[in-house]
Amino acid sequence: MASNGTNPSLLSGLVDPTPPKSNENTSKIRRYRRCKSAPTADFLPAEIGLNNLQRSASIFGKPHPHYLRMAAYLGVYLSAGTICFYSVKSQITGKKTNGIVDSIYFCIVTMTTVGYGDLVPNSVLAKLLACAFVFAGMGLGGIMLSKAADYLVEKQEILLIKALT
Questions:
Q1: pTM listed for this prediction
Q2: pLDDT digits (tens, 9 = 90+) for 83-125
Q3: What is the pLDDT of residues 28-45, one digit of tens each?
């Protein structure tokens, strides 16, 4: 320790003063990684066939498979909720209009956790059923938002790769 009484830098062991050796065989393309969950993050543009992407230009084109799966989950959720809440409609108090419409309405209001209070479960079974559908609806909403965000990140990554090449 010939540093004249000064302490060495804490980061001196972490910094490599020699620049990395460049190899002529390495690619000159930088890989930018925005999100680890995006499927295109690990591939170069040529590997994923960036020029041959078959994505629709409008939102009314062929939907992404994640959206089809989410629509199926939402349909199953609403169907099961409508059947369950229709079967316990006598245990739900409030101003009722039509049994099926009220069941769909109560299922959607419960899923979104809005809870207007115009239809209220008044038995233990109806309350437990509503709690189960609140948790399932919140999970379904979270999955839907996650899949939509993944899709948007994937689109942004493709645009970024196109801009960099």
A1: 0.58
A2: 999 999 999 998 889 889 999 999 999 988 888 889 999 999 9
A3: 555 555 555 555 545 554
Q: Return the amino acid letter for 42.
A: D
Q: Would you say residue 38 lies in a domain?
A: no
CATH code of the domain in which 78 resides = 1.10.287.70
First to last CA, the chain: 50
- Domain, as residue range, for 85: 73-160
